[in-house]
């Protein structure tokens, strides 16, 4: 037997027998009522880790900051200070984190030599300028996506990062904080579907306009739909195809159903080609209220010997929860239990802060994912339907 095929068989057999489990079940089952009684948010339980670094938060305009804090604390970070220019955000954080110092200014945090890492989920167009100030102060930076909203910002961030040697990390959560996607990475690396040819990333979101801040509807603030939620998909494309070089083949954007928000883009899609494979991306704001999740996010990874499909947040076929992973190869169709999969990003990022390494994400990958999103956004043709 071919040694490569034998290793692949052993890896899949180990996955079947492990505690994480590979449970064989049919893809088509009895219909289940999945009416929106409860919004599904896959739970992530992290073990307690002794602090190895101190970190702070500057800017928390998006709720993603809570996940960022959780990730770094789980990796060995101690949350010691926070600042926002908005009083209401400061008041909210004081209540939620009463033992953490409320700084009087951004500069107070930047001047504090004991702080090694700064997190931010500020207004998107403000993140890169803040990251530049953070790096120039001698600290590392971790941004919510999108970490950069223009090609001009990207050029300056790259320049300052190269000069300072500080870390500029963007938390592409759809890969880094999704157990099924992390497991897919292990399967692909083990050769479970052969050589990857293409990724298809779908990023639908629910609008919830009444809960959105003003900046959500301003193109100058959020950077466009492909820049924003599309950046996740380019990160996954690069990771799974192994591409180190890539460019945008075609892209389009539109506001097809929200004329009351003229600056909003509610649909976008992209074709991308890299030196390791090709990809397709679709993002939108059309998740209906009847779904038990904010979006039926999916990723399909096509290989020469099979394919993987991930249903990140919900399985509309009826299975409970999120993190659903399906593997199809020449031997059959399988579903994989990912409940015990380790999420290493936070731990690796803290390792990188301590050791000055690039184990969580290389700077080249981080910036190329954003470059593709920004180029696709800038080149996109505007569509009009009807």
Helices and strands, with pairings:
Elements: H1 3-17, E1 22-23, E2 53-60, H2 64-75, E3 77-83, H3 87-96, E4 101-102, H4 106-111, E5 117-121, H5 124-136, E6 140-144, H6 151-164, E7 168-171, H7 173-176, H8 179-189, E8 196-204, H9 219-222, H10 225-228, H11 230-241, E9 246-254, E10 267-274, E11 278-284, E12 298-303, E13 306-311, E14 324-329, E15 332-336, H12 345-355, H13 363-379, E16 381-382
Parallel strand pairs: 2-3, 2-5, 3-4, 5-6, 6-7, 8-11, 9-16
Antiparallel strand pairs: 1-15, 8-12, 9-10, 10-11, 12-13, 13-14, 14-15
Helix pairs in contact: 2-12, 5-6, 11-13
Briefly note the structural class of the backbone: alpha/beta
Shape verdict: globular
Query: In sequence order, what are the helices and strands, one letter per element?
Result: HEEHEHEHEHEHEHHEHHHEEEEEEEHHE
Unreliable stretches covering 5 or more consecutive residues: 7-41
CATH architectural arrangement of the largest domain: 2-Layer Sandwich
Q: Percent of residues in helical segments?
A: 25-40%
Main sheet properties: 10 strands, mixed
How many helices does DSSP assign? Answer: 13
Strand order of the largest sheet: 1-15-14-13-12-8-11-10-9-16
Q: In the residues, how many domains can be counted?
A: 2
Look up the CATH topology of the largest domain.
Dihydrodipicolinate Reductase, domain 2
Q: How would you state the average pLDDT, rounded?
A: 90
Let me know the CATH homologous superfamily of the largest domain.
Dihydrodipicolinate Reductase, domain 2
Beta strand %: 15-25%
């Amino acid at each position: 037997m071919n040694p490569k095929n034998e290793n692949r068989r052993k890896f899949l057999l180990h996955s079947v027998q492990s505690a994480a489990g590979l449970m064989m079940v049919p893809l088509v089952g009895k219909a289940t009522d999945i009416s929106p009684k409860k919004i599904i948010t896959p739970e992530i339980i992290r073990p307690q880790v002794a602090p190895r670094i101190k970190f702070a938060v500057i800017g928390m305009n998006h709720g993603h900051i809570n996940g960022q804090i959780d990730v770094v604390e789980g990796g060995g970070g101690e949350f010691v200070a926070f600042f926002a220019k908005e009083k209401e955000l400061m008041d909210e954080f004081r209540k939620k984190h009463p033992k953490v110092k409320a700084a009087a200014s951004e500069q107070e945090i930047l001047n504090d030599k004991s702080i090694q890492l700064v997190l931010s989920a500020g207004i998107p167009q403000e993140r890169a300028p803040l990251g530049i100030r953070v790096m120039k102060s001698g600290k590392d930076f971790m941004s919510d996506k999108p970490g950069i909203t223009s090609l001009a910002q990207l050029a300056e961030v790259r320049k300052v990062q190269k000069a300072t040697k500080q870390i500029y990390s963007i938390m592409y959560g759809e890969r880094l904080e999704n157990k099924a996607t992390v497991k897919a990475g292990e399967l692909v690396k083990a050769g479970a579907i052969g050589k990857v040819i293409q990724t298809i990333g779908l990023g639908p979101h629910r609008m919830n306009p009444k809960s959105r801040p003003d900046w959500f509807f301003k193109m100058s603030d959020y950077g466009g739909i492909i820049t924003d939620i599309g950046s996740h998909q380019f990160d996954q494309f690069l990771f799974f195809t192994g591409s180190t070089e890539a460019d945008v083949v075609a892209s389009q954007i539109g506001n097809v159903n929200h004329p009351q928000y003229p600056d909003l883009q509610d649909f976008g899609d992209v074709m991308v080609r890299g030196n390791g494979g090709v990809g397709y991306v679709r993002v939108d704001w059309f998740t209906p209220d009847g779904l038990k999740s904010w979006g039926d996010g999916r990723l399909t990874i096509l290989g020469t010997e099979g394919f993987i499909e991930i249903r990140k947040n919900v399985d509309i076929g009826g299975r409970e929860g999120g993190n659903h992973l399906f593997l199809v190869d020449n031997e059959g169709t399988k579903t994989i239990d990912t409940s015990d999969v380790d999420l290493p990003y936070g731990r690796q990022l803290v390792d990188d802060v301590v050791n000055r390494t690039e184990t969580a994400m290389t700077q080249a990958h981080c910036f190329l994912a954003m470059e593709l999103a920004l180029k696709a956004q800038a080149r996109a043709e505007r569509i009009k339907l009807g």
